Amino acid sequence: MLFAGDRGRSHAELDWPARMKIVHGIAEGMRYLHKELASSDLPHGNLKSSNVLLGPDNEPMLVDYGFSRMVNPSSAAQILFAYKAPEAAQHGQISHGCDVYCLGVVILEILTGKFPSQYLSTGKGGTDVVQWVETAISERRESEVVDPEIAGSRNLLGEMEQLLHIGAACAESNPQQRLSMEEALRRIEEIRSEGGHGQESRTIEVFPSHADSEEFENQGRFDRSQRRRGTNSFGSEGNIELGSS
Questions:
Q1: Residue in 42, 59, 75 with CA at minimum distance from that of residue 212
Q2: Distance of alpha carbon 201 from alpha carbon 127, whole angstroms
Q3: Distances (CA, A) of 210 to 1, 62, 94, 125, 128
Q4: Other beta carbons within 10 Å of 85
């Protein structure tokens, strides 16, 4: 798991290129869910670092897609991380915009190396990474909140600060001012392109809940019996490998 205590990778194991690769893969996977599966009108609903699994080459795999449909509505706000988005907390309904907020929190966690207080139901403990980074940006102290494990790469600090701004824009409290998933991915890819991180061939995996994967099969959208390898994008449904979580 990504940054999940003793079960996850240590911060020291994930250098800047690895973290950039992970962020890009997560954003690309989420963009696929929002754009290519738009007809299902189903947000991820529970995107957080403990639901991002890392493969041997730090390839991110998203789990819990569709889990929101299996949760009792009366307890959804306590179980699904998307309800931490301000508008969801206020109106009691999650949306694709809430997924963008969640992506912002994950980006800020990866960049700062801090455990977000947003993950805790009580709000006590951890670091309010959204407020902390927002304050640092307003005071032009971005470099001070970057994880010391990667901040030593001074020549790459500009890229880190650019990504920090993207994370903050995704976690904007006003959903009308928040980035779309498409725009977030575009900006992330700009950083990768400018930094020469490359577009290596890879497989990106999304693991929905068991119920939703069966529904997709019944609709003829996916076939779990086949493992289909993608290249460097989510250009087609065949680039997703599904399994039950």
A1: 42
A2: 35
A3: 20, 14, 21, 33, 33
A4: 25
- Residue 21 Cα distances to 60, 118, 190, 217, 218, angstroms: 8, 24, 13, 30, 33
pTM score: 0.79
The span from the CA of 235 to the CA of 185, in Å, is: 14
- The model's pLDDT over 106-161, given as tens digits with 9 standing for 90+, comes to 999 999 999 999 998 776 789 999 999 999 999 999 999 999 999 988 789 999 99
Percent helix / strand / coil, the chain, rounded to 5:
55, 5, 40
Q: Which CATH number fits domain 5-198: 1.10.510.10, 3.40.50.300, 1.10.8.60, 3.40.50.2300?
A: 1.10.510.10
Which tokens hold the place of 139?
């005071």
Q: What is the pLDDT of residue 172?
A: 97
pLDDT along the chain (245 residues), means of 10: 51 88 97 88 94 92 88 89 95 94 98 94 85 98 95 90 98 97 97 73 53 45 36 30 32
| Average model confidence (pLDDT) across the chain | 81
Residue type, 75: S
Measured over the CA atoms of residue 79, residue 222, residue 230 and residue 100, the dihedral's sign is negative
Here the tokens at position 116 are 């977000």
45 φ, ψ (degrees, to nearest 5): 85, -20
* CA separation for the pair 43, 196 (Å, rounded): 32
Count CA within 13 A, CB hemisphere, residue 132. 19
Report the alpha-carbon distance of residue 143 to residue 184 in Å, rounded.
21
